[in-house]
Predict the 3D structure of the following.
Amino acid sequence: MTWFLMKDSWREAYIGPIKGYFFYREDYIRLKALAFLVHREAVTPWLAKFKE
């Protein structure tokens, strides 16, 4: 099972031991996520595969 640590700025994110962050399981992300943001440097090698 894969878990993700996600930054959240909503008020509810600051309730609990890890302020401003939530842990989400992979299956929840697949079910609920509409979009996600990834830093450009993290995907540059992957995007290079698709250049013509």
Remarks:
- The mean pLDDT is 82.
- The beta strands are 3-7, 21-25.
- The two ends are 36 Å apart (CA to CA).
- The helical segments are 26-32, 40-48.
